[in-house]
Amino acid sequence: MPKYYEDKEEDGRACAGVREDFKACLLQHDCVVKEGKKPSECLKEGHCKGLQVAFFECKRSMLDTRSRFRGRKGE
Question: Which BP terms does GO give this entry (predicted)?
Fold first, then answer.
């Protein structure tokens, strides 16, 4: 689920909300916290897969010419 904060500075980059949630999911996952693995290793194991796919879809929609009319996904 997206997280919204009132006192947070605005990130103007594309897909910023999905990026932040994906990053938080990885850094707070037991794979990183308890086992001490790198976030990239946890990704290969399949952790936070839903957010990874959502972030990929959002970034891919930036290149899609049809998104001019529909808007970016995940915004």
Answer: mitochondrial respiratory chain complex IV assembly
